[in-house]
Protein backbone atom coordinates (compact mmCIF):
# COMPACT_ATOMS: atom_id res chain seq x y z
CA UNK A 1 0.00 0.00 0.00
CA UNK A 2 1.15 3.50 -0.82
CA UNK A 3 0.18 7.02 0.23
CA UNK A 4 0.48 10.13 -1.96
CA UNK A 5 0.63 13.51 -0.26
CA UNK A 6 -0.52 16.08 -2.85
CA UNK A 7 1.37 19.22 -3.75
CA UNK A 8 -0.60 22.41 -4.29
CA UNK A 9 -1.46 23.31 -7.88
CA UNK A 10 -1.86 27.04 -8.48
CA UNK A 11 -1.99 29.51 -11.32
CA UNK A 12 1.78 29.99 -10.99
CA UNK A 13 2.81 26.36 -11.53
CA UNK A 14 0.11 25.17 -13.99
CA UNK A 15 -0.02 25.33 -17.77
CA UNK A 16 -3.24 24.00 -19.32
CA UNK A 17 -4.84 23.69 -22.75
CA UNK A 18 -8.24 24.25 -21.10
CA UNK A 19 -9.18 27.82 -21.92
CA UNK A 20 -10.75 30.07 -19.29
CA UNK A 21 -14.18 30.85 -20.71
CA UNK A 22 -15.67 32.30 -17.53
CA UNK A 23 -15.74 36.08 -17.02
CA UNK A 24 -13.44 37.67 -14.47
CA UNK A 25 -14.92 40.08 -11.94
CA UNK A 26 -14.25 43.76 -12.38
CA UNK A 27 -15.69 46.64 -10.41
CA UNK A 28 -19.31 47.31 -11.32
CA UNK A 29 -22.92 46.44 -10.52
CA UNK A 30 -24.13 42.89 -11.16
CA UNK A 31 -27.67 41.51 -11.27
CA UNK A 32 -28.92 38.41 -9.45
CA UNK A 33 -27.66 35.20 -11.06
CA UNK A 34 -24.57 36.74 -12.67
CA UNK A 35 -21.41 34.64 -12.42
CA UNK A 36 -17.87 36.01 -12.15
CA UNK A 37 -14.56 34.57 -11.02
CA UNK A 38 -11.78 35.84 -8.78
CA UNK A 39 -8.50 33.93 -8.85
CA UNK A 40 -9.68 30.41 -9.67
CA UNK A 41 -12.97 30.54 -7.71
CA UNK A 42 -16.35 31.13 -9.31
CA UNK A 43 -19.08 33.18 -7.65
CA UNK A 44 -22.76 33.91 -8.29
CA UNK A 45 -24.75 37.00 -7.29
CA UNK A 46 -27.49 36.17 -4.76
CA UNK A 47 -28.35 39.77 -3.82
CA UNK A 48 -31.73 40.96 -5.10
CA UNK A 49 -31.81 42.82 -7.42
CA UNK A 50 -28.06 43.55 -7.74
CA UNK A 51 -24.80 44.23 -5.93
CA UNK A 52 -21.57 46.15 -6.42
CA UNK A 53 -19.70 44.16 -3.75
CA UNK A 54 -16.46 42.39 -4.58
CA UNK A 55 -17.22 38.60 -4.56
CA UNK A 56 -14.82 37.53 -1.79
CA UNK A 57 -16.26 40.29 0.41
CA UNK A 58 -19.80 39.57 -0.71
CA UNK A 59 -19.74 35.96 0.50
CA UNK A 60 -18.90 37.27 3.99
CA UNK A 61 -21.56 39.99 3.99
CA UNK A 62 -24.68 39.70 6.17
CA UNK A 63 -26.77 38.78 4.29
CA UNK A 64 -24.40 37.42 1.60
CA UNK A 65 -24.47 39.16 -1.77
CA UNK A 66 -22.34 36.55 -3.57
CA UNK A 67 -22.23 32.75 -3.30
CA UNK A 68 -19.10 30.66 -3.96
CA UNK A 69 -20.16 27.96 -6.43
CA UNK A 70 -16.87 26.16 -7.08
CA UNK A 71 -13.85 26.50 -9.30
CA UNK A 72 -13.53 27.68 -12.87
CA UNK A 73 -13.47 24.83 -15.39
CA UNK A 74 -9.67 24.85 -15.74
CA UNK A 75 -9.16 24.26 -12.00
CA UNK A 76 -12.02 21.87 -11.21
CA UNK A 77 -9.61 18.94 -11.51
CA UNK A 78 -7.59 20.40 -8.63
CA UNK A 79 -10.49 21.46 -6.39
CA UNK A 80 -10.62 18.48 -4.02
CA UNK A 81 -14.17 17.72 -5.24
CA UNK A 82 -14.06 14.53 -7.31
CA UNK A 83 -17.49 14.91 -8.92
CA UNK A 84 -16.64 18.45 -10.13
CA UNK A 85 -14.97 17.76 -13.48
CA UNK A 86 -12.74 19.80 -15.76
CA UNK A 87 -14.01 19.31 -19.33
CA UNK A 88 -12.42 20.01 -22.70
CA UNK A 89 -13.20 18.87 -26.22
CA UNK A 90 -10.77 16.24 -27.51
CA UNK A 91 -8.18 16.28 -24.74
CA UNK A 92 -7.01 17.79 -21.48
CA UNK A 93 -3.30 18.56 -21.32
CA UNK A 94 -1.76 20.02 -18.19
CA UNK A 95 1.86 20.65 -17.26
CA UNK A 96 2.85 21.23 -13.65
CA UNK A 97 6.14 22.58 -12.36
CA UNK A 98 6.08 21.17 -8.82
CA UNK A 99 9.41 22.68 -7.66
CA UNK A 100 9.76 19.56 -5.48
CA UNK A 101 10.53 15.87 -5.76
CA UNK A 102 7.44 14.03 -6.99
CA UNK A 103 7.16 10.43 -8.14
CA UNK A 104 3.46 9.62 -8.36
CA UNK A 105 0.28 10.80 -10.11
CA UNK A 106 -3.29 9.70 -9.35
CA UNK A 107 -6.38 10.67 -11.35
CA UNK A 108 -10.05 10.25 -10.48
CA UNK A 109 -13.45 10.41 -12.22
CA UNK A 110 -11.93 10.31 -15.69
CA UNK A 111 -13.61 10.17 -19.08
CA UNK A 112 -11.55 9.50 -22.18
CA UNK A 113 -9.60 6.83 -24.05
CA UNK A 114 -6.04 7.02 -22.73
CA UNK A 115 -3.95 8.87 -20.17
CA UNK A 116 -0.30 9.71 -20.81
CA UNK A 117 2.05 10.93 -18.09
CA UNK A 118 5.50 12.27 -18.99
CA UNK A 119 8.29 13.95 -17.06
CA UNK A 120 10.78 16.41 -18.52
CA UNK A 121 13.98 17.54 -16.88
CA UNK A 122 15.57 20.85 -18.07
CA UNK A 123 18.98 19.13 -18.39
CA UNK A 124 18.24 15.52 -19.34
CA UNK A 125 15.06 16.09 -21.35
CA UNK A 126 12.27 13.51 -21.21
CA UNK A 127 13.03 11.06 -18.42
CA UNK A 128 9.66 9.31 -18.20
CA UNK A 129 6.65 8.56 -20.39
CA UNK A 130 3.84 6.08 -19.82
CA UNK A 131 0.44 5.64 -21.45
CA UNK A 132 -2.45 3.69 -19.93
CA UNK A 133 -5.76 2.82 -21.55
CA UNK A 134 -9.02 3.60 -19.78
CA UNK A 135 -10.63 0.53 -21.38
CA UNK A 136 -11.61 -1.97 -18.68
CA UNK A 137 -11.18 -5.55 -19.91
CA UNK A 138 -11.87 -7.24 -16.59
CA UNK A 139 -15.20 -8.63 -17.85
CA UNK A 140 -13.62 -10.16 -20.97
CA UNK A 141 -12.92 -13.78 -20.04
CA UNK A 142 -13.75 -15.58 -23.31
CA UNK A 143 -14.63 -14.92 -26.96
CA UNK A 144 -18.34 -14.49 -26.19
CA UNK A 145 -17.68 -11.75 -23.65
CA UNK A 146 -15.13 -10.20 -26.03
CA UNK A 147 -17.83 -9.67 -28.67
CA UNK A 148 -20.97 -9.16 -26.59
CA UNK A 149 -20.11 -7.65 -23.21
CA UNK A 150 -20.74 -3.93 -22.83
CA UNK A 151 -17.68 -1.73 -23.17
CA UNK A 152 -16.71 -0.38 -19.76
CA UNK A 153 -14.11 2.23 -18.89
CA UNK A 154 -11.88 2.81 -15.90
CA UNK A 155 -12.44 6.08 -14.07
CA UNK A 156 -9.41 6.06 -11.75
CA UNK A 157 -5.72 5.53 -12.51
CA UNK A 158 -2.40 5.77 -10.70
CA UNK A 159 1.17 6.14 -12.01
CA UNK A 160 3.60 5.21 -9.25
CA UNK A 161 6.91 4.74 -11.05
CA UNK A 162 7.95 8.28 -11.94
CA UNK A 163 11.66 8.93 -11.32
CA UNK A 164 12.52 11.30 -8.49
CA UNK A 165 13.66 14.56 -10.11
CA UNK A 166 13.48 17.81 -8.18
CA UNK A 167 13.49 20.14 -11.20
CA UNK A 168 11.39 18.19 -13.72
CA UNK A 169 7.96 19.20 -14.96
CA UNK A 170 5.12 16.67 -15.19
CA UNK A 171 2.71 16.63 -18.14
CA UNK A 172 -0.57 14.70 -18.13
CA UNK A 173 -2.65 14.22 -21.28
CA UNK A 174 -6.18 12.78 -21.15
CA UNK A 175 -7.10 11.90 -24.73
CA UNK A 176 -10.77 11.43 -25.61
CA UNK A 177 -10.48 11.44 -29.40
CA UNK A 178 -13.53 13.16 -30.88
CA UNK A 179 -15.35 13.18 -27.53
CA UNK A 180 -15.09 15.43 -24.49
CA UNK A 181 -12.24 14.66 -22.09
CA UNK A 182 -13.12 14.95 -18.40
CA UNK A 183 -11.15 14.80 -15.16
CA UNK A 184 -12.57 15.03 -11.66
CA UNK A 185 -9.35 15.23 -9.72
CA UNK A 186 -5.61 15.00 -10.32
CA UNK A 187 -3.15 14.51 -7.47
CA UNK A 188 0.59 14.88 -7.93
CA UNK A 189 3.01 14.19 -5.12
CA UNK A 190 5.53 11.93 -3.47
CA UNK A 191 4.49 8.35 -2.71
CA UNK A 192 5.41 6.48 0.46
CA UNK A 193 5.00 2.76 1.03
CA UNK A 194 3.04 1.94 4.18
CA UNK A 195 2.90 -1.84 3.99
CA UNK A 196 1.69 -4.81 1.97
CA UNK A 197 -2.01 -4.89 1.14
CA UNK A 198 -3.42 -8.32 1.98
CA UNK A 199 -6.59 -10.33 1.44
CA UNK A 200 -9.38 -9.26 3.75
CA UNK A 201 -9.37 -5.75 2.29
CA UNK A 202 -12.96 -4.65 1.61
CA UNK A 203 -14.37 -2.06 -0.79
CA UNK A 204 -17.74 -0.33 -0.98
CA UNK A 205 -19.50 3.01 -1.31
CA UNK A 206 -21.50 5.42 0.84
CA UNK A 207 -24.49 6.58 -1.20
CA UNK A 208 -25.93 10.03 -0.47
CA UNK A 209 -28.99 9.56 -2.67
CA UNK A 210 -32.41 10.01 -1.05
CA UNK A 211 -34.76 7.02 -1.21
CA UNK A 212 -38.22 7.55 0.26
CA UNK A 213 -41.80 6.33 -0.08
CA UNK A 214 -44.82 8.52 -0.77
CA UNK A 215 -48.16 8.08 1.03
CA UNK A 216 -49.17 5.42 -1.52
CA UNK A 217 -45.99 3.41 -1.14
CA UNK A 218 -44.41 4.61 -4.37
CA UNK A 219 -40.66 5.03 -4.48
CA UNK A 220 -39.18 8.54 -4.59
CA UNK A 221 -35.51 8.45 -5.52
CA UNK A 222 -33.28 11.50 -5.75
CA UNK A 223 -29.90 10.49 -7.11
CA UNK A 224 -26.93 12.23 -5.50
CA UNK A 225 -23.21 11.64 -5.29
CA UNK A 226 -21.46 8.85 -3.43
CA UNK A 227 -18.10 8.38 -1.78
CA UNK A 228 -15.89 5.31 -1.89
CA UNK A 229 -15.02 3.44 1.30
CA UNK A 230 -12.17 0.94 1.65
CA UNK A 231 -11.18 -1.14 4.64
CA UNK A 232 -7.52 -1.97 4.07
CA UNK A 233 -5.85 -4.94 5.72
CA UNK A 234 -2.07 -4.57 5.73
CA UNK A 235 1.06 -6.38 6.75
CA UNK A 236 3.65 -3.90 8.01
CA UNK A 237 7.20 -4.16 9.32
CA UNK A 238 7.06 -4.31 13.11
CA UNK A 239 10.21 -2.18 13.27
CA UNK A 240 8.40 0.62 11.39
CA UNK A 241 5.25 0.81 13.51
CA UNK A 242 6.25 4.04 15.27
CA UNK A 243 7.01 5.69 11.94
CA UNK A 244 3.69 4.51 10.47
CA UNK A 245 1.73 5.80 13.46
CA UNK A 246 3.44 9.20 13.19
CA UNK A 247 2.79 9.35 9.44
CA UNK A 248 -0.91 8.59 9.81
CA UNK A 249 -1.23 11.02 12.71
CA UNK A 250 0.26 13.78 10.56
CA UNK A 251 -2.42 13.32 7.85
CA UNK A 252 -5.36 12.70 10.17
CA UNK A 253 -7.27 15.74 8.86
CA UNK A 254 -5.76 16.01 5.38
CA UNK A 255 -7.12 14.38 2.21
CA UNK A 256 -4.45 12.23 0.58
CA UNK A 257 -4.41 9.34 -1.89
CA UNK A 258 -4.48 5.79 -0.54
CA UNK A 259 -3.52 3.03 -3.00
CA UNK A 260 -3.99 -0.59 -2.07
CA UNK A 261 -3.09 -1.92 -5.53
CA UNK A 262 -2.54 0.35 -8.52
CA UNK A 263 -4.01 -2.35 -10.78
CA UNK A 264 -7.23 -2.51 -8.76
CA UNK A 265 -8.88 0.89 -9.19
CA UNK A 266 -11.46 0.13 -6.49
CA UNK A 267 -8.63 0.29 -3.92
CA UNK A 268 -7.47 3.75 -5.05
CA UNK A 269 -9.12 6.39 -2.88
CA UNK A 270 -8.63 10.13 -2.44
CA UNK A 271 -9.90 10.99 1.01
CA UNK A 272 -9.15 10.65 4.70
CA UNK A 273 -8.98 7.77 7.14
CA UNK A 274 -11.67 7.32 9.75
CA UNK A 275 -9.84 4.87 11.95
CA UNK A 276 -6.75 2.67 12.07
CA UNK A 277 -5.21 0.13 14.38
CA UNK A 278 -2.00 -1.89 14.45
CA UNK A 279 -1.55 -5.21 16.23
CA UNK A 280 1.96 -6.35 17.18
CA UNK A 281 1.84 -9.83 15.63
CA UNK A 282 5.43 -11.04 15.35
CA UNK A 283 8.88 -9.47 15.74
CA UNK A 284 9.08 -9.17 11.95
CA UNK A 285 5.57 -8.36 10.72
CA UNK A 286 2.42 -6.90 12.25
CA UNK A 287 -1.19 -6.42 11.15
CA UNK A 288 -2.74 -3.05 10.40
CA UNK A 289 -6.38 -2.19 9.70
CA UNK A 290 -7.09 1.15 8.03
CA UNK A 291 -10.58 2.44 7.15
CA UNK A 292 -10.62 5.18 4.52
CA UNK A 293 -13.55 7.23 3.20
CA UNK A 294 -13.20 9.00 -0.12
CA UNK A 295 -14.17 12.55 -1.00
CA UNK A 296 -17.22 13.14 -3.18
Mean pLDDT: 93
CATH class of the largest domain: Mainly Beta
Separate helix tally: 3
Q: What gross morphology would you assign?
A: globular
CATH-scheme architecture of the largest domain? Sandwich
Rg computed from alpha carbons, rounded to a whole number of angstroms: 22 Å
Largest sheet: 10 strands, antiparallel
Question: How are the elements arranged and paired?
Answer:
Layout: E1 2-6, E2 14-16, E3 30-31, E4 35-38, E5 41-45, E6 50-51, H1 55-58, E7 66-71, E8 86-96, E9 104-108, E10 114-121, E11 125-133, E12 135-136, H2 143-148, E13 152-153, E14 157-159, E15 169-183, E16 185-193, E17 196-197, E18 202-207, E19 210-213, E20 219-222, E21 226-237, H3 241-250, E22 256-259, E23 268-279, E24 285-294
Antiparallel strand pairs: 1-16, 1-22, 2-8, 3-6, 4-5, 5-7, 8-15, 9-14, 9-16, 10-11, 10-15, 12-13, 17-21, 18-21, 19-20, 21-24, 22-23, 23-24
Task: Give an account of the 3D structure.
- With 296 residues, the protein is mainly beta.
- It folds into three domains: 2-16 and 78-193, Galactose-binding domain-like (Jelly Rolls); 30-71, no CATH class; 196-294, no CATH class.
- It is built from three helices and 24 strands.
- It has helices spanning 55-58, 143-148, 241-250; strands spanning 2-6, 14-16, 30-31, 35-38, 41-45, 50-51, 66-71, 86-96, 104-108, 114-121, 125-133, 135-136, 152-153, 157-159, 169-183, 185-193, 196-197, 202-207, 210-213, 219-222, 226-237, 256-259, 268-279, 285-294.
- The strands form six sheets. Strands 1, 9, 14, 16, 17, 18, 21, 22, 23 and 24 form a ten-stranded antiparallel sheet that branches. A five-stranded antiparallel sheet has the order 2-8-15-10-11, with no helix packed on it.
- A hairpin with a 5-residue loop joins strand 23 and strand 24 (285-294).
- The longest helix has 10 residues, at 241-250.
Amino acid sequence: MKLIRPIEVTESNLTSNVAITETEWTAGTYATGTERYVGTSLYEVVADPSTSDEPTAGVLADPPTWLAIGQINQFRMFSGVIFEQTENSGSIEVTIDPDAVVNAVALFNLSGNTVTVSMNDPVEGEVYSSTKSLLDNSEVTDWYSYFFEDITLKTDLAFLDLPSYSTATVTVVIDAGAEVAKAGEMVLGSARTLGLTSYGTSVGIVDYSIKERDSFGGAIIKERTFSRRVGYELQVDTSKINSIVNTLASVRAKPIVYIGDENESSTIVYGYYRDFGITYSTPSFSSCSLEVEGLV
